[in-house]
Amino acid sequence: xxxxxxxxxxxxxxxxxxxxxxxxxxxxxxxxxxxxxxxxxxxxxxxxxxxxxxxxxxxxxxxxxxxxxxxxxxxxxxxxxxxxxxxxxxxxxxxxxxxxxxxxxxxxxxxxxxxxxxxxxxxxxxxxxxxxxxxxxxxxxxxxxxxxxxxxxxxxxxxxxxxxxxxxxxxxxxxxxxxxxxxxxxxxxxxxxxxxxxxxxxxxxxxxxxxxxxxxxxxxxxxxxxxxxxxxxxxxxxxxxxxxxxxxxxxxxxxxxxxxxxxxxxxxxxxxxxxxxxxxxxxxxxxxxxxxxxxxxxxxxxxxxxxxxxxxxxxxxxxxxxxxxxxxxxxxxxxxxxxxxxxxxxxxxxxxxxxxxxxxxxxxxxxxxxxxxxxxxxxxxxxxxxxxxxxxxxxxxxxxxxxxxxxxxxxxxxxxxxxxxxxxxxxxxxxxxxxxxxxxxxxxxxxxxxxxxxxxxxxxxxxxxxxxxxxxxxxxxxxxxxxxxxxxxxxxxxxxxxxxxxxxxxxxxxxxxxxxxxxxxxxxxxxxxxxxxxxxxxxxxxxxxxxxxxxxxxxxxxxxxxxxxxxxxxxxxxxxxxxxxxxxxxxxxxxxxxxxxxxxxxxxxxxxxxxxxxxxxxxxxxxxxxxxxxxxxxxxxxxxxxxxxxxxxxxxxxxxxxxxxxxxxxxxxxxxxxxxxxxxxxxxxxxxxx
Length: 690
Description:
By secondary structure, this protein is an alpha/beta fold.
């Protein structure tokens, strides 16, 4: 390629100024001297041209292939229906057709889901994939997508290239789908009260109504018909503290795109206004204030404490009106308001005829309906006044054998206790013997039911837990926990033990013996299975698309099995293990990819048409065949598409292999021209004067 270039010997502004002066002198010379002044103008022009320093440039160029970018949409919405195999067929056909274009180099770029909830970002993937390609080498862009794109530039100027853009749309125009959309969903709720959830069933190609199933923690609450595209409200009772998982699931349509959006999950954190605890202490003892101090230190606990200082059989002649003691309100506590308490603690309480048998029956009923009691036993538990001799006996997990062992011993965690969240990993338990102080007394008992978590002297049971219908019972067979609190022999983890024990009784979700939990970090899902069994069956992970996978669990600590797995899909995942179920969301619970599921040709049409390109479907309704347009090179014009073809614009790009420069204004030729023009002007003007 041959061209002329200029490299001025003086600044550009000086050259232009000099050019203006030369032009003015030439005009004046022509006006005053006539045509003979043309030679002077030529001479001045040659001087000006010499200062411009022209040169002939010869470039040795090698033609390079044009780049055509083919962006393949691999986002989550492209997995719906038969879009994924349709996309693979279109790509294979494009590869075959590019093989017949010798001067075109196709570049295939995969576009996955955007980070977070960014949706489908094809233009960002295009920009990243062409970072090393000059814009003038790009001959065309082809999108293979369902048309649901979330980063479309507002105008053609934002593209950064001038090549035609074509979109080949997967999916079919007769797609149908039904989904449920949450309008209002509470995050927190008071235990025992109802919360309102507002939602709406949206559909295309549906029947106008759908069957809605409502579940809480995997249990079906109701089934009802709801109208499509009409908001509705649901009342859901918050049954317990911690996470209450409410599922709204609507029945699917035949041949719908996906059922991943047919379910919405609302995790509602149950909050207790106050955990009400009734502490009933028997005769005063050294450890009485241990329980009181522990419960009073918890701001979420409302404590009612009574100590029996004057049993009915005590008669010393003091008139009743002179006693300063408060009468024990047995009827109010154990008959009228017993259901208001979350936990009842009997601390070294002996049956002294204060509570009639009917009240013990009320306590048994209270436990079986969901309440909890803790018996912190002392020597009275082995006497005739033991609570095990009352009508509480059916729910107390151990029966005293009449022995009271008073000798130093270190509390040991049993094999069962090592698996239980209440006693697992207690500070100091990692050593053998445990790194905590000794206790000095234990009450002999025969455990009939429940789980023994700790043992004492002579391997006697020390701490026993039991479930009774909907309620819970704990039996602590020593009154010497206060030795840890007082720092005897460096003390022990009394706060950890007693607080965990009280909160297990009050159904703290984190202390459940059988539990399934899942959490997300980025694209990784961590599964935790708490169990009292020695092994744990694999968990089942259900992706938003409905795909199931079995996840083996490995024991990391006694009773705790975990696994970590990477997820390929955004949205709400379901984890099941036996009767347990939990949910974990990768990214948003309701991602954009599943909120806009229908393929369309409208979104990309304006930007494609502005570049001279086109948007068209590769499959029509009821037609199983795939139609890919022909590829043609269009060297001129503003339209690059036709009925059965799409065009690319060749760029004539080349790589410069060498450059040769030939100066024109310097050297012998330039000198001859300048001297010749000056001599000619002198001779002609001289003859004219003569």
